[in-house]
Amino acid sequence: MWNEEQKLLVTVPNHHELAKGTLISIMKQAKIEREEFLSKLK
């Protein structure tokens, strides 16, 4: 996943499910807060 605004590249596994720790790590790398992530799911 590439964020043009922040010039940030994060690798996201293409799995049906992710382990909680994996998701937390991806969110930290992407500099995404929990609330922002949850709002995008809706």
TrEMBL record:
GO molecular function per UniProt: endonuclease activity; hydrolase activity; mRNA binding
Keyword RNA-binding (UniProt): yes
Entry keyword annotation includes Hydrolase: yes
InterPro entries assigned: HicA_mRNA_interferase (IPR012933), HicA_sf (IPR038570)
SUPFAM superfamilies: YcfA/nrd intein domain
Keywords for the protein's UniProt record, in alphabetical order: Endonuclease, Hydrolase, Nuclease, RNA-binding, Stress response, Toxin-antitoxin system
A UniProt-annotated Pfam family: HicA_toxin
Protein name from the UniProt record: YcfA-like protein
Organism: Candidatus Syntropharchaeum caldarium
